[in-house]
# Entry
Amino acid sequence: MDFPALPKDIPGRYLSIVEYHELYLSKKLTPLAVAKSLLPLIRRDVTPISHHSTAFISCNVDDVLEAATASTLRYENGTSLGLLDGVPTAIKDESDVAGYRTTSGRKANDKLFPVANETIWSIQQWVDAGVVIIGKTTMHE
# Structure
């Protein structure tokens, strides 16, 4: 399937899913390198704090690196899961994702908002396709 190329000269433009996939296949970039470059931007527990981190309420660094490493190995072995494999994605804090609290924008409280044990079906489909969930994003209540 051919997709039209996005103009490269747009300030602040991000890579498309197709561009990530092509870069991963060509070995010019790896999902692990992408994850390692994004983590300092979204984490609130590092110094200096990036202005991007205000969009994120949580990030399970070990899970991100594990998923990105697995995806990188699949590309190295020629067993990519497809177009979404290795693409970084954030999840809005209204959906359950295993290992994360779902607060729906309310102030986190361990008793009210336990860590989810399961990921909802729609997001699990992305995980099964190799998407790297880099964290959960904020939202208003």
Q: What stands out?
A: Strands lie at 56-58, 88-92, 132-137. Helices lie at 17-26, 31-42, 61-76, 121-128. The chain has four helices and three strands.
